[in-house]
Amino acid sequence: MAFTLSIYPWVFYSRSDGNGGWHDTYVEKPHKTPAEEAALSPAQWQALLDQRNSFPELPLVNYTTQYGLGCFEGLKAFPQPDGSLKLFRPDRNGARMERSMIGLKMPGFPMARFVEANRQVVAKNAALGFRPQFQKEWEKDNFQNAEAIYLRPFSYSEPAIGLGLSTHPWVVVVATPVSSYFKEGSTAAVTTDKIRATPKGTGWIKCDANYVIPTLAKKEAEHQGYMEAIFLDAKTGQYIEEGSSCNFFAYLKNGSLVTPELGDTILPGITRESILTIAADLGIKTEVRKLSVDEVLAEATEVFVTGTAAGVSPLESLTHQGQKAAFSGGNHGEVSMALLKSLKGIQYGVAEDKHGWMVNVS
Ligand SMILES: *Cc1c(COP(=O)(O)O)cnc(C)c1O
Questions:
Q1: Do 157 and 106 sit in the same domain of this protein?
Q2: Looking at the structure, do residues 172 and 235 belong to the same domain, yes or no?
Q3: In terms of domains, do 294 and 267 share one?
Q4: I need a surface site. Which of 143, 144, 199, 311 has the fewest CB within 10 A?
Q5: Beta strand pairing status for 285-288 and 256-259?
Q6: Which domain holds residue 247?
Q7: Ligand 1 atom closest to Cα of 271?
Q8: Is 4 among the domain residues?
Q9: Per-residue pLDDT for the chain (362 aa), expressed as one digit of tens each?
Q10: 163 and 233 within one domain
């Protein structure tokens, strides 16, 4: 299952009226029961999924498909021991989506409406049986292979061919099941000399266009036998910014957990923000500042990347211009394991949610 697309039947979309108003619609795409779908041949199942991923309501040629003028979010709903489903900090995703849209000079989709749409998509699919159920054995490896529902909200522009701004965008929300994000195997990372984001650019916006260069860099890294590419700052090439779609943390010999400070070139991850809070709760010293690649090579004992899809993923090594440093033998170090355990415990409802992060679906 990992991170593949098998869209659940209920899809949400909303259209901007260009005046601050939005018109919400929920669509039930073709489906059978989950059990009947599981019994289909691969070809039959793909045909059904293709119908669910086809949306005649939306135009083919527009600013989003032609020029990458669009933004998106990624958040999860987690099955709970009591049988319910809860979203993790959907208000933070909603606030970021609104900021992203305004950053792209579109009408912003209001945060409360975003939260409601995501709740409803999960609830309507769950009512049809499209949902994972909590399993006790997930706890054994701290939910590293547990299932969840991944929600993908995104903006989509009106029909257009010339360059221009989107004044009447749609916002769409689809849901798909997920388990672990990274494939088994190497977790080695390498710095890339490609530039993800430049000062005064769009690096702080979760926009479609920002994903082109990271995809190329990650594929180049994979081609060289690494799992992940790490981006350095555009001006000096000395400071770590982030991974291909995840934020970067290093735990140093002096007992400090460091993550690069945000600016306009680093995406403000909600997992990043949550890990900083959890680290403080656990009594781990945190620092948010510039972090040079040389400092990581010389001083780090653990390195990991964070994101909704990636969770808390340790890197076994980092290579920069032929110089390689290895960390915690490729496994979770003590610190990243403690952080992962706390985060997943809250998300899967087996640890106290003391910051009120979890939101009921229905
Ligand atoms: C989405 C994203 C992240 C992670 O953000 P989360 O809110 O933690 O999922 C990190 N970096 C980039 C570039 C991203 O697009």
A1: yes
A2: no
A3: yes
A4: 199
A5: parallel
A6: 188-347
A7: 8
A8: no
A9: 456 889 999 999 999 999 999 999 999 999 999 999 999 999 999 999 999 999 999 999 999 999 999 999 999 999 999 999 999 999 999 999 999 999 999 999 999 999 999 999 999 999 999 999 999 999 999 998 999 999 999 999 999 999 999 999 999 999 999 986 556 778 999 999 999 999 999 999 999 999 999 999 999 999 999 999 999 999 999 999 999 999 999 999 999 999 999 999 999 999 999 999 999 999 999 999 999 999 999 999 999 999 998 899 999 999 999 999 999 766 779 999 999 999 999 999 999 999 999 999 98
A10: no
Domain CATH for 330 = 3.20.10.10
Give me ligand 1 centre to Cα 308, in Å.
7
Best residue for ligand 1 mutational test, from 212, 228, 277, 308 (most atoms within 8 Å of Cβ): 308
Pair 58, 203 in one domain: no
Strands 317-320 and 188-192: parallel
Distance of CA 12 to the CA centre of its chain: 19
At position 38, the amino acid (one-letter code) is A
When divided into structural domains, the chain yields a total of: 2
Nearest to 259 by CA among 271, 180, 91, 188: 271
Cβ proximity of 273 and 91 under 8 Å: no
Ligand 1 neighbours (beta carbon < 6 A): 74, 206, 242, 245-247, 267, 269-272, 306-308
Dig out the tokens for 179 from the structure.
């388990």
Q: Which two tokens mark 328?
A: 């915690």
Q: Nearest residue CA, atom 12 of ligand 1?
A: 245
Pocket mutation for ligand 1, best pick of 154, 195, 206 (most atoms within 8 Å of C-beta): 206
Residue 245 Cα to ligand 1 midpoint, Å, equals 5
Within 10 angstroms of residue 181's Cβ, the number of other Cβ atoms is 16
In a domain, 92, yes or no: yes
Q: Which atom of ligand 1 is nearest to the CA of 73?
A: 1
Element (H, E) at 230: strand 228-232
Asked if 165 and 208 sit in the same domain, the reply is no
Q: How far is the CA of 74 from the centre of ligand 1 (A)?
A: 8
